[in-house]
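User: Last request for today: this protein with glutathione, please.
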Amino acid sequence: MTRAVRSSNRTGRKKRGQSSNAGKPIELYYWPTPNGWKVSIMLEECALPYVVRPVDISKGEQFTPQFLAISPNNRMPAIVDPRGPGGRPISVFESGAILQYLGRKTGKFYPTDERARVAVDEWLFWQMSGLGPMSGQAVHFRRYAPRQIAYAIARYTDEVNRLYGVMNARLANHEFLAGRYSIADMACVGWVRLAERRGEDLAQFPHVRRWFETLRDRDAVKRAFAIRIPAASAVDMRDPKVRAVLFGQRAR
Ligand SMILES: N[C@@H](CCC(=O)N[C@@H](CS)C(=O)NCC(=O)O)C(=O)O
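Assistant: Here's the final one, the structure of the complex with glutathione:
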């Protein structure tokens, strides 16, 4: 399924000298998860034309040769930008790399001043290596593991709690993670959204809550969260076929 979300090429007319890629939207390979939301938020914030190419990870579409050619790690999100460097197409996988690429491409939400950029990178990598994977493990052991393993649940729940404490301390004296609103905030907000939607209590982290509410109320973030992929709502994580695709993966 392909869904056109935005297009800036309203007239469809080509100017002289424009390459055939001009006006073609970025393709976003996507499934509605916190990692997918990072990129849809950035595309919306930058008002870049894009089309959503759903990758149904519950059915194994992440293993098709076409998808692996652009995302060899069999994970979404990924993008194909028809107008990459030199005006030629480029594909990018790994959400952090995609955010940095789009930040460099547009000059938005990823400052060029070195000190400011280091701060964005610090919090972006903090998300990529900490908040994201640890939240993922906590969710896995709490909701999807075939049996409840108290040690694993405590280990990842504690680590996520520690990370929220770090974020809360940072946001106590910074409006956004890296000072100004940036790709680092976009990387984190989906995870906090998931926690909040699952009824986890943010009362212990009032600065995280204040930050989350600010982001959630941004029009671009609302649009990104509003993208509907009906097949995703129908996925039943208890279905043995879905579990066989997503869990217990080994080298192929
Ligand atoms: N480090 C990767 C992680 C992406 C990731 O874990 N994506 C998951 C969904 S949130 C996925 O595609 N899973 C498919 C699978 O497990 O086969 C990134 O940030 O892009």
